[in-house]
Design brief:
By secondary structure, the chain is of the alpha+beta class. The protein has a single domain, classed as Carboxypeptidase-like, regulatory domain (Immunoglobulin-like), CATH 2.60.40. The chain contains 2 helices and 10 strands, in the order αββββββαββββ. Strands 1, 2, 5, 9 and 10 form a 5-stranded mixed β-sheet that branches. Strands 3, 4, 6, 7 and 8 form a 5-stranded antiparallel β-sheet that branches. The longest helix has 18 residues.
Length: 147
């Protein structure tokens, strides 16, 4: 009887681990440069080629790279996504810093940081940034100029 219980528990664990993998994931990666140098602490927003699904966001790392892992059942379309970008810097005299429970975008909302990129990069209507998405994996770099 004890062996039967152990076999049953092992089988249940096996089914749970193997059977609950979900529909898979999609991965977007790349690197953002500002005037030819890596752009750390950037905020990117990806707008799909049609309005049937919402945009999604990702932040750049210290080396300017980004990675977005998206559930396969999100039904994101392939195609050319418009990307908006922001690069926040703390305002002089700000007493708040990143790591006090806030990221740069939140600091900007409180008036403690400002976006240093030209305004055209913050509007999906005006942004020249495009990212080609072909799932399950897409890789592309984004070059931003401050002038």
């Amino acid at each position: 009887m004890r062996q039967l219980v152990c076999v049953g528990l092992l089988f249940g664990l096996f089914v749970t681990v193997i059977g609950c993998g979900g529909p898979g994931t999609n991965k977007l990666t790349g690197k953002v440069t500002l005037d030819g140098s890596p752009m750390p602490n950037g905020a990117l927003q990806f707008y799909p080629p049609n309005a049937t699904v919402p945009a999604f966001s990702v932040n750049t790392k210290d080396d300017g790279t980004f990675e977005a892992i998206i559930p396969g059942d999100a039904n994101l379309p392939t195609g050319s996504y418009t990307v908006t970008a922001a690069k926040y810097e703390l305002k002089k005299g700000s007493k708040m810093t990143v790591g006090e429970g806030m990221d740069m975008a939140q600091l900007a909302m409180t008036g403690n940081a400002t976006n240093v990129l030209p305004k055209k990069f913050s509007s999906p209507k005006d942004s020249p940034l495009k990212y080609e998405v072909k799932f399950p994996t897409a890789t592309g770099d984004l070059a931003i100029t401050s002038k």
